[in-house]
Amino acid sequence: MTTEPSSRIPPDAAAANKSPRTERGRRTLRKLLDAAAIEFGERGFHEASITGITRRAGTALGSFYTYFNSKDEIFRALVDDLSGKVREAARSARSQDLPALETERASLVGFLRFAAEHKEIYRIIDECEFVDPASFRQHYQSTATRIHERLADGIVKGDLREDLGEAHAWAIMGMNVFLGLRYAVWDDEPPEHIAELANSILREGIVKRP
Questions:
Q1: Rounded to an integer, what distance in angstroms lies between the CA atom of residue 120 and that of residue 207?
Q2: How far apart are CA 138 and CA 154, in angstroms?
Q3: Which residues of 52-89 are buried (b: 16+ CB within 10 A; e: fewer)?
Q4: Which residues of the chain have a pLDDT value below 70?
Q5: What is the Cα–Cα distance from 190 to 201, expressed in whole angstroms?
Q6: Distance of CA 161 to the CA centre of its chain
Q7: What is the distance between the alpha carbons of residues 158 and 27, in angstroms, rounded to a whole number?
Q8: Contact predicate 41/119, CB 8 Å
Q9: Axis crossing angle, helix 166-180 with helix 191-204, rounded to the nearest 10
Q10: pLDDT tens, residue by residue, 65-76
Q11: Confidence at residue 163, expressed as pLDDT on a 0 to 100 scale
């Protein structure tokens, strides 16, 4: 799956009144974020450097400070950017009016494809727990909230039982995250196969039936 360059502006840049005002500026910002994903993904937060990011981006050092004040700032912006890409990957993989379980299956396929192409996301998000705990928590909280909203919609449609709540959303998210780690990052399994396996757990459970 090819992920189109995002036009989202990181909140840190916006808060510092550093949002690009031109298309050229937006392209430069996009290059910096994409380069940061590779730099942090390969070297980790502490070994990564601003010069490493600008070298990978093919931009001048001054271009970095046009949009960010520090390595910490671009890291926070990158986590937000990756969270948005995960959201878009799951959304774009499904059509609008699927039944609830098909919605979850298609969303997982989209995430697995994204994780397979952007394996660095796992290292970046894991490090975020220590570099910026608030962003780490927000990443997972927002993901679980989206799943919870989908479950609520499935209840309204009559597809799902009525006692599903936030904890169920977190359980589904946890399953998806570790399936991605095992079968998209460590190995390369067909995402449709893994998503169907996960869907069968939601659909049938794991209890042996008479």
A1: 36
A2: 24
A3: bbbebbebeeebbeebbeebebbbbbbbbbbbebbbbb
A4: 1-17
A5: 18
A6: 28
A7: 45
A8: yes
A9: 150
A10: 999 999 999 999
A11: 95
Return the structure tokens found at 41: 């993904």
What would the two tokens of residue 81 be? 């950017």
DSSP labels, 92-117: HTS-TT--HHHHHHHHHHHHHHHHHH
SS3 201: helix
Q: What is the pLDDT of residue 95?
A: 77
pLDDT at 21: 83
Residue whose structure tokens are 């990052």:
185
Can you tell me the distance from the alpha carbon of 201 to that of 207, in angstroms, rounded to the nearest whole number? 10
77, 10 in Cβ contact below 8 A?
yes
Identity at 152, one-letter amino acid code:
A
**Residue among 169, 181, 171 nearest 115 (CA):** 181
- Tokens 């990957």 sit on residue: 89
